[in-house]
């Protein structure tokens, strides 16, 4: 009996020591590593795990377009240009296409901007088609797999559906020629036509230097509960409301415009970035498309993102556990947003803030120039590396054709 | 095709906002003017006209009646964004199933899962507003508690690690400006995020006046009296204040208060960063004090003396070399004010500070304790100074070696508090505790009015008006006559007159 008593006491002491140790470690630490397989993946190094061959396309597909409109370097879709530049000088690049695992086609499809700065996607399908015709006729690698080991960056609103309007985009569907390729895009929504199985979702481009120039000291107390700046009604395109953001943004405004906890308005303050760093929650509702650069900004500034977009697929969802970092609110629950947010226990909020403070998390959302380890470029490469090795079935027998080159709207078949 | 006509209108509206080239290559290919196209265009025009009349988008309603299958889930809908008057049709209008069949027809093959699998549908949605869209006070309180918890965590992570109590020593006495000054200090101390002990030493003994102010602070206070009255010359006043501060230090020693002693003179202004900065002191530290001297008449004297140098920085504090070591002190240069400084409290000349003000120093309270083993040996014991209080001008006299002072505020480069002396005449009267009791009810008309010209006599009828309306009415040019009212009321009437005259003249 004594032996059992002693053993029980020892166990009790050990348990208490370990629990105290766990409590000590958990409290008052500024950052927390996303433990487990998901978080460690962020710090993987893709160099040595894959090889990428970059096709040499004539400059009318990339450089000339950029020269015509240098604004493409600063808008939300600039990732396609920076990805090209990164790959050209990256150690994963190989000049020998025989040993390449992935093939990249540098075609800037989103660089046709209106005077306002918004991209028009009307020529993009023809441009892409023309590029693919070029690579399939000059190199044998496209026909070898019909594009299954090629990847394309299509950062526009609805990805490779190449339209800004959702109904039209769904009607068009993904460009038939890209049916077997891997798409790297900002758009992600489950069970949607424009999200292909196996796509890699990336964050929209946000200029890193501009954001880092507006950092304020960490000890500035966070005194804003919920923060949002942006449109609630898109008066130009949807004056009655109900189309834009599926009515979710308008619902936020109508329910919470009188609420002192919600600092929401349509203004464009110069202190936007500083204010985000003084807020606990930042709303990231959908707009015309479900993704939003606010997610990137919220992560960089340590503000917990409140994502209001049904079925959205967030960037690098297989590497970043977004459920633990952000708060997901269904669009139908928007009228109860204040109840939802105030009923989150403070320990959970503190844990989310610790996860957000993790520098590898912030780094994974950015496209810095020049590239740094752990940034979004590397996460894309990690994603591509995780899809290796290619299944044997992607390699087609010679003469076997899967893609239909004449599919799609008639207008797409015109040469570019 | 009919879809395309409508979509085209929507498309053109979006491109209109883009102000870009018209979509020549859009997929809708209406090649010839087929009768079906014209029919649909005419129908669309008719619907647009109907919408203009009715105030909502009528054309979609047509499709609703053609395609409405099941009524989708209707949650509480708001009466539309634009035309809010017609709510009933809009309720039906917002059915989610409108465009779904169209979508299904268009892309049957590409969808791997059925449309019902996705919760998200394209098309017009309702704007959900709850019946009482106003904040719930309990939730607001919960949110504030969350914010407070978050800020506490932030302070723990990024703020000061080892938090010590702030012991503020304030010498004061009852005078006209006391409430002004001491309220400022009190509010600063109440905002300090650490524990505060406030030692208020009052010259002339404890009074209700001071006690009433200090009690409002909610802090732990020691309110003690000092048995001398405050003299009327600045020199003697500074000396007495030093003695009062030493008295307070004796209290710290007696009570064995643990924390950081700072000297919060009641007319100084402290920044919040000061309290964060002094937490890092080890034994004794010095901060830079901004000296604000009322500079009346100083400029003339300097130009008379022909000084070429720029006016010195009004800062007292530690001076450091490039490696952030203390090498000396910036003190107040009183030569510029030689012979022109205030002697008595109500003098017009500028009031000068001492060479080094007490306010610029902070001490670890353990330096004052009686028996402490690890007390450093360069501190004189307080009991040694009994009787010799007169010579203590700054805490440096308590040290045997002044090089141990730690410069705070990035080596004195940041000025964290300001010294200012503004006082009324020593014989000025003010209501006790600033409460007017009994209320003023006797008004004596003054012998001289502000308008020396006596106005002419009033005409009869306007005088009647005057009696009934209780205000004086005349033509614009003439002044008011003297009435048996207080001056303030007359001023009010003067304003009213201005308004009334204009209306009167219009009538």
From TrEMBL, chain A:
Belongs to the glycosyltransferase 47 family. Keywords: Glycosyltransferase, Golgi apparatus, Signal, Signal-anchor, Transferase, Transmembrane. It is found in: Golgi apparatus membrane. Pfam families: Exostosin_GT47. Residues 1-22 form the signal peptide. GO terms for molecular function: glycosyltransferase activity. The lineage of its organism: Eukaryota, Viridiplantae, Streptophyta, Embryophyta, Tracheophyta. This is Exostosin GT47 domain-containing protein. It comes from Flemingia macrophylla. Residues 49-344 form the Exostosin GT47 domain. It comes from the Eukaryota. Its main location: Golgi. Coiled coil: none annotated. One of its GO terms (cellular component) is Golgi membrane.
UniProtKB/TrEMBL annotation, chain B:
Gene3D superfamilies: Spore Coat Polysaccharide Biosynthesis Protein SpsA, Chain A. Keywords: Cell wall biogenesis/degradation, Glycoprotein, Glycosyltransferase, Golgi apparatus, Membrane, Signal-anchor, Transferase, Transmembrane, Transmembrane helix. GO terms for cellular component: Golgi membrane. Its EC number is 2.4.-.-. Pfam families: Glyco_transf_43. Its main location: Golgi. It is found in: Golgi apparatus membrane. One of its GO terms (molecular function) is xylosyltransferase activity. It is a single-pass type II membrane protein. Involved in the synthesis of glucuronoxylan hemicellulose in secondary cell walls. This is Glycosyltransferases.
């Amino acid at each position: 009996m004594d032996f059992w008593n002693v053993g029980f006491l020892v166990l009790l002491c050990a348990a208490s020591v370990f629990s105290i140790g766990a409590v000590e470690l958990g409290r008052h630490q500024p950052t927390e590593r996303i433990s487990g397989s998901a978080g460690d993946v962020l710090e993987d190094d893709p160099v040595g795990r894959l090889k990428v061959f970059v096709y040499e396309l004539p400059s009318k597909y990339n450089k000339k377009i950029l020269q015509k409109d240098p604004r493409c370097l600063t808008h939300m879709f600039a990732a396609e240009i920076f990805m090209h530049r990164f790959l050209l000088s990256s150690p994963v690049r190989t000049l020998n296409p025989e040993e390449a695992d992935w093939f990249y086609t540098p075609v800037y499809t989103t660089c046709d901007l209106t005077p306002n700065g918004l991209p028009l996607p009307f020529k993009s399908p023809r441009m892409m088609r023309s590029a693919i015709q070029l690579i399939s006729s000059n190199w044998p690698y496209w026909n070898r797999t019909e594009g299954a080991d090629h990847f394309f960056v299509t950062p526009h609103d609805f990805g490779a559906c190449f339209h800004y309007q959702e109904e039209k985009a769904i009607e068009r569907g993904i460009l038939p020629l890209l049916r077997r390729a891997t798409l790297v895009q900002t758009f992600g929504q489950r069970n949607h036509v424009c999200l292909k199985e196996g796509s890699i979702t990336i964050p929209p481009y946000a200029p890193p230097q501009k954001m880092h120039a507006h950092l304020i000291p960490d000890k500035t107390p966070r005194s804003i509960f919920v923060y949002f700046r942006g449109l609630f009604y898109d008066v130009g395109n949807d004056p009655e409301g109900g189309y834009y953001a599926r009515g979710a943004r308008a619902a936020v405004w109508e329910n919470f415009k009188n609420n002192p906890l919600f600092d929401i308005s349509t203004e464009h303050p110069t202190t936007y970035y500083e204010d985000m760093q003084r807020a606990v929650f930042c709303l990231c509702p959908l707009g015309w498309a479900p993704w939003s650069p606010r997610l990137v900004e919220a992560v960089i500034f340590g503000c917990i993102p409140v994502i209001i977009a049904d079925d959205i697929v967030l960037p690098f969802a297989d590497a970043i556990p977004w459920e633990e970092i952000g708060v997901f609110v269904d669009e139908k629950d928007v009228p109860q947003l204040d109840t939802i947010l105030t009923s989150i226990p403070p320990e959970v909020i503190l844990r989310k803030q610790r996860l957000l403070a993790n520098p590898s998390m912030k780094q994974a959302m950015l496209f810095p120039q020049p590239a740094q380890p752990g940034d979004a470029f590397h996460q894309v490469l990690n994603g591509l590396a995780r899809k290796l090795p290619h299944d044997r079935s992607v390699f087609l027998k010679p003469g076997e054709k899967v893609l239909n080159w004449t599919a799609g709207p008639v207008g797409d078949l015109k040469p570019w | 095709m009919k879809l395309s006509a409508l979509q085209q209108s929507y498309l053109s509206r979006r491109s209109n906002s883009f102000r870009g080239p018209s979509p020549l290559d859009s997929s809708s290919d209406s090649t010839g003017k087929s009768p079906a196209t014209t029919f649909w265009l005419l129908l669309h025009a008719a619907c647009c006209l109907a919408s203009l009349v009715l105030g909502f988008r009528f054309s979609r309603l047509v499709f609703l009646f053609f395609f409405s299958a099941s009524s989708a889930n209707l949650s509480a809908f708001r009466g539309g964004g634009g035309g809010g008057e017609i709510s009933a049709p809009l309720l039906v209008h917002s059915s989610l199933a409108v465009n779904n069949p169209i979508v299904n027809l268009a892309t049957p093959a590409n969808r791997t899962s059925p449309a019902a699998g996705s919760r998200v549908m394209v098309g017009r949605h309702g704007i959900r507003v709850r019946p009482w869209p106003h904040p719930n006070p309990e939730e607001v309180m919960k949110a504030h508690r969350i914010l407070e918890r978050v800020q506490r965590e932030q302070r723990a992570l990024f703020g000061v690690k080892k938090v010590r109590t702030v012991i503020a020593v304030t010498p004061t006495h009852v005078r006209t400006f006391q409430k002004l000054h001491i309220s400022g200090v009190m509010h600063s101390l109440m905002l300090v995020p650490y524990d505060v002990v406030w030692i208020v030493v009052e010259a002339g003994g404890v009074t209700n006046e001071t006690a009433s102010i200090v009690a409002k602070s909610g802090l732990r206070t020691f309110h003690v009296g000092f048995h001398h009255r405050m003299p009327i010359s600045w020199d003697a006043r500074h000396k007495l204040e030093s003695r009062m501060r030493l008295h307070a230090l004796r209290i710290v020693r007696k009570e064995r208060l643990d924390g950081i002693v700072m000297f919060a003179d009641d007319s100084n202004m402290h920044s919040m960063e000061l309290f964060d900065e002094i937490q890092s002191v080890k034994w004794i530290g010095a901060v830079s004090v901004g000296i604000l001297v009322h500079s009346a008449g100083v400029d003339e004297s300097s130009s008379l003396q022909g000084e070429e140098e720029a006016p010195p920085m009004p800062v007292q504090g530690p001076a450091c070399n490039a490696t952030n070591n203390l090498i000396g002190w910036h003190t107040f240069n009183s030569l510029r004010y030689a012979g022109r400084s205030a002697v008595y409290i109500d003098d017009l000349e500028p009031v000068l500070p001492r060479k080094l003000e007490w306010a610029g120093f902070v001490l670890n309270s353990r330096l004052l304790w009686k028996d402490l083993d690890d007390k450093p040996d360069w501190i004189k014991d307080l009991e040694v100074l009994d009787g010799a209080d007169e010579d203590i001008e700054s805490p440096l006299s308590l040290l045997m070696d002044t090089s141990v002072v730690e410069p705070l505020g990035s080596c004195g480069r940041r000025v964290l508090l300001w010294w200012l002396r503004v006082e009324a005449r020593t014989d000025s009267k003010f209501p006790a505790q600033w409460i007017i009791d009994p209320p003023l009810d006797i008004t004596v008309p003054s012998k001289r009015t502000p308008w020396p010209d006596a106005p002419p006599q009033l005409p009869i009828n306007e005088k009647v008006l005057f009696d009934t309306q209780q205000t004086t009415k005349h033509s614009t040019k003439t002044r008011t006559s003297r009435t048996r009212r207080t001056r303030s009321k007359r001023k009010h009437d003067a304003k009213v007159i201005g308004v009334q005259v204009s209306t009167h003249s219009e009538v």
